[in-house]
């Protein structure tokens, strides 16, 4: 469970989250929406323990994500809006992911195949030299292989072509059962089949929070 109670977050004098409260429970599959600057990424970063709230509390499975960062992140598969500038080649990246998160290489290969990402010819290629869509497919494959209780994807299909988006939605339909899945998206039409809750934020507040 993710519990956000009366959380405010300021950068300088600008309020990015304004006394926001939300609870996410197992089987919640959420489309988190809102205009640029609404506070969606700030909310995610508080859940991941990147930021201290100015007031209020954030708990992930009862743990404070700042004080218990390692334990909290063990349960979260996160794919960011912009892929990080990883210098490793894909073979090294897979080995690193397997060692650091105790997942099987075969699980990553399986999900890469499901995303129709042909890993074999790219194993010696640096991650940062992949196309935007290939990077996203690779990060999605690793994140699904981890089988975490919580999946958080920030605009996961932004760089995917229509076929890859279909694959993503088909895969995620199976992979979000009995989990918390939070998707930041500007494309609710695409996500409608997948999500069961829609939250709309603006100016650091929740404007609507509805089942779908
Ligand atoms: N590290 C930071 N330093 C200063 N201001 C920040 C920082 N991170 C976010 N902000 C500000 O907080 C507000 C909310 O930003 P945030 O990135 O959370 O919005 P968002 O809803 O994710 O937007 P987008 O859809 O464009 O990704 C914005 O006004 C932004 O400028």
From TrEMBL:
Q: Which UniProt keywords apply?
A: ATP-binding, Nodulation, Nucleotide-binding, Transport
A molecular function GO annotation: ATP hydrolysis activity
Presence of keyword Transport: yes
Question: Matching SMART domains, A to Z?
Answer: AAA
Q: Which domain of life is it from?
A: Bacteria
InterPro entries for this protein: AAA+_ATPase, ABC_transporter-like_ATP-bd, ABC_transporter-like_CS, ABC_transporter_ATP-binding, P-loop_NTPase
Q: Where is the ABC transporter domain?
A: 2-212
Q: According to its UniProt record, which protein family does this protein belong to?
A: Belongs to the ABC transporter superfamily.
Q: This protein is called what?
A: Nitrous oxide reductase accessory membrane protein NosY
Q: Species name for this entry?
A: Sulfurospirillum halorespirans DSM 13726
